[in-house]
Design a protein that fits this description.
The structure is a single chain. The protein is mainly alpha-helical. The chain has 8 helices and 2 strands. The chain is globular and about 50 Å long.
């Protein structure tokens, strides 16, 4: 952790596998360029839950805190580059999380490994079990990031486009392709 950088994870509402949203509503978010850590903490804290959830989805719950802390460090160092015209603080921070999670995943675990403690299953109408997590994990990285942002973190198409640095049309088509691929993988034989 950088000198003067706040430890935001300890007060973020994050537990082992879940980050709860902050009750604080984002106010006018301006980063004080003087580098005051309290200002940075107030600026980031409303977005910690979304950062933790995306990190958990992309890197696994075991790496979540490391990814979020790495993203916070990166955001702290690059805070002078934030441009409100290019997106909200939330999308800027989530883009950093997505980048850091991708790097962590490349360093620490094979691409197709799953975190068994975070594996949701869905029971089909006929009682069979469908392994949604395995199906999502098998998607190509771009499709998986799109699905994770939209369905698991709750971002809009526009926010996802900013996080992924692509157009909204690209997000929509990637999401449609991902849904088609998931549908074919999750179909239950009758």
């Amino acid at each position: 952790m950088l000198a003067g950088q706040p430890n935001l994870l300890s007060a973020s509402g994050c537990t082992q596998n879940v980050c709860e949203p902050s009750s604080a509503e984002p106010k006018t978010l301006v980063i004080d360029q003087s580098g005051k850590s309290d200002d940075f903490a107030r600026w980031v804290s409303p977005h910690l839950a979304a950062m933790g959830n995306l990190a958990s989805r992309l890197a696994g719950s075991a790496s979540r805190d490391d990814v979020v802390q790495d993203a916070l460090t990166r955001a702290w160092r690059k805070r002078h580059l934030y441009n409100a015209e290019r997106g909200t603080p939330r999308t800027w921070l989530l883009a950093i999380v997505a980048d850091r999670a991708g790097r962590a995943r490349q360093r620490h675990r094979p691409h197709d490994a799953l975190d068994a403690s975070n594996t949701p299953t869905v029971h089909a109408v006929d009682g069979t079990t469908v392994d949604v997590e395995r199906a999502v994990a098998s998607l190509p990285p771009r499709m998986r990031l799109t699905v994770d942002c939209v369905y698991f973190v709750g971002l809009t198409i526009a926010e996802t486009a900013v996080v992924m640095n692509v157009s909204e049309g690209t997000v929509k088509s990637t999401l449609a392709d991902a849904r088609a691929k998931l549908r074919s993988q999750l179909e239950v034989e009758t």
